Amino acid sequence: xxxxxxxxxxxxxxxxxxxxxxxxxxxxxxxxxxxxxxxxxxxxxxxxxxxxxxxxxxxxxxxxxxxxxxxxxxxxxxxxxxxxxxxxxxxxxxxxxxxxxxxxxxxxxxxxxxxxxxxxxxxxxxxxxxxxxxxxxxxxxxxxxxxxxxxxxxxxxxxxxxxxxxxxxxxxxxxxxxxxxxxxxxxxxxxxxxxxxxxxxxxxxxxxxxxxxxxxxxxxxxxxxxxxxxxxxxxxxxxxxxxxxxxxxxxxxxxxxxxxxxxxxxxxxxxxxxxxxxxxxxxxxxxxxxxxxxxxxxxxxxxxxxxxxxxxxxxxxxxxxxxxxxxxxxxxxxxxxxxxxxxxxxxxxxxxxxxxxxxxxxxxxxxxxxxxxxxxxxxxxxxxxxxxxxxxxxxxxxxxxxxxxxxxx
Length: 409
Ligand code: FAD
What we know:
Elements: E1 5-8, H1 12-23, E2 30-34, H2 65-70, E3 73-77, E4 81-85, E5 90-93, E6 98-100, E7 103-106, E8 110-112, E9 125-127, H3 131-143, E10 146-150, H4 154-165, E11 169-174, H5 186-198, E12 202-205, E13 209-215, E14 217-223, E15 228-230, E16 233-236, E17 240-242, H6 245-249, E18 254-255, E19 257-259, E20 271-273, E21 278-281, E22 288-289, H7 294-308, E23 320-325, E24 328-334, E25 341-347, E26 352-359, E27 362-369, H8 372-384, H9 390-394, H10 400-404
Parallel strand pairs: 1-2, 1-7, 2-3, 7-20, 9-16, 10-11, 10-16, 11-12, 19-21
Antiparallel strand pairs: 4-5, 5-6, 8-17, 13-14, 14-15, 18-19, 21-22, 23-24, 24-27, 25-26, 26-27
Helix pairs in contact: 1-7
Bound molecules: flavin-adenine dinucleotide.
């Protein structure tokens, strides 16, 4: 009797794998196991519309519960997988039962990196990864008056924008000298900071945290330079750690992510890993990467489903990402670990522009602010392995759409 596919993790990657198994014609048993007690849901709104109270929890569900029954999927929500027994081809659940698999897909995602300073355990120090955390944060934000956000990356800046829209006093503290330093160039960091500042967000960049102050509840944040920022709510957004322990304890290789090959397969040919927890060889960088984006977990889920359904192909999807911060719609296409030239298309003063990044004359990535058209064409060009010259990119009369359709080079 076929044991079918067991998917650990009911985030967007786990859900997509299950849905794509069926659409790719896989007919065997499919079991989804996730420790969160919810239907699979989308995370991006948790720091955007949902945090602002513009959406209800049921609107975040990727599919209603009938979808899983109609597609003969067993969804075990609120169940944690404790152990993978590769020799027996089984997983062991926290509730004690065991489930056998022919194929195992690890879509265990990532968890919040915890703030390693005294006072971080005080009431009023919050994180933002799960639906439950977003529900709690929304309530606390409404009640708060002074908010300190620790971390000037996407999550921190989205939360800061939401807090300003709720008319709260907000200060963002970033350890590095500029915002989003891991993912973008100084021009965009500066632009984004100025736009948030114009909306009333205060910034402390290049600032260390000495401790969170308060007794029982948070009263502020003490910086390493001695400054004290009063706060009745602290939001920590300092990145995530991939959930690799389950794989590692089963003897599968894992560093900054569960190690997989170009088919997203671990060293055990029955076991795949996808999404935020997986480290894979990227054709775009020539190196191993781990990405945290909806595009990546969705396309990797599709890729693994095809592989299991007997249509094996390496993972080759073009990476892209978005972040909404108030009236800033930031979109990124491609990956550029090394850049030796960046050119601007459009006028930053207008609030709508893109930055094209090059390495050795080849276009590697494009960051767009409020220019979705550039982003769409950039994705097409990058997917084709095509390039436009820096001069063409900077020239607004140059037709990117034609270039992306192969009609101009
Ligand atoms: P996850 O969503 O982390 O899901 C993994 C699931 O597995 C979790 O539910 C976890 O509890 C469960 N799990 C782990 N271990 C076990 C176990 N042993 N047993 C059972 N279950 C287990 N991306 C974008 O592209 N654009 C955005 O605007 C954007 N905004 C975001 C905003 C927020 C607030 C957050 C948190 C993320 C955002 N992202 C965004 C990132 C994107 O949501 C993630 O990259 C994506 O959800 C990753 O999906 P995943 O399935 O790989 O992992």
